[in-house]
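Single Protein Entry

Contents — chain, fold
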Amino acid sequence: MKYFIKILKDFPLYLLSGASSLASIFIFIAFWDITNQLYGTLVLPSPKETFETLYDLLNNKVIFSEIKLTIYRAFYGFSLCLIIGTILGLLAGFFITASIMSRPIITILVGMPPIAWIVLAMIWFGMSDKTVIFTVVIASFPIIFIGSLQGARTLDSTLKEMADSFNLPLKMKLLDIYFPHIFSYIFPAWVSALGMSWKIVIMAELLSSNNGIGAQLAIARSLLDTPTALALVLIMIGSLLFIEYIILEPIKKEVESWRN
C-alpha cells in the first residue's frame, strides 16, 4: 500500500518528466505536416485532417464497440499469457532441469514471427476470436517466461542462506526477500508483454477478423482511406501510451527503485 501512496504523491513529477517527450511529439507533428505538403493527402494526410477524422470517429458509437472488442481480446490473451508464463517461468527458474529443457522451446518461440502464428491459427481456428487470442498468447508468452525465469534464477543465495540461518518464517521469506526481487523482474516483463499483446491483436484482427480496430484498419486500407487509417493508428497509439505511461510506468519506477 505504501508504494501506491508514494506513486500518487509523486504523480505530478511523473507528468512533469514527460514535458520533453511532449515537445518531441510536437516536432514530429511539424515534420508530419511538411511531408503532407510535399507528397499530398493520399500518401500522408495533414495532421489537421487526421485529427478531424479522429474526432468524427470518436463521435461514432460503433467505433467504441470495436475498441472494446479489441481491448477484450488483448487483455484476455494477455491474462492467459501472464498466468501461464509466470508460473512456468518461475518453475524453470527454481529447477535447473526445467530451465535447460525449456531453453530450445523458448528459442523457437522467440524466433517464430507472429505472422506465421496468425496463419497457423487461421488454419486451426478459422476466422474467430480464438485465432486472435491464441496469437496474442503464443507471441507474448516468451517475454513473461524469460522475465520470470530470470527473477527466480538471480535470487541472491547469500540472502537465502541468511534467512535460513535466522530461521525466518516462510511468510517473511516470501514477502520480504523473494517477492520484491522476483517481482522487480516480472513486472517489467508484464509491461513489455502488454505492449506486444496490443500490437499483435491489431495485426491478427487485420488479417483474420471481421471486427475490431484491426478489421477497421483493413477496411480503410481497401478503400485507400488514409485519413481514417491514420486516425485508427492514433487511437491504438493513444490507448497504449495511456496504459503504459500513465498507469504502468509510475508503478514500474517504484518497483525498480531498490536497484538504485
Q: What stands out?
A: The radius of gyration is 22 Å. The domain at 63-259 is CATH 1.10.3720.10 (MetI-like fold). The chain has twelve helices and no strands. Residues 170-208 form the longest helix (39 residues).
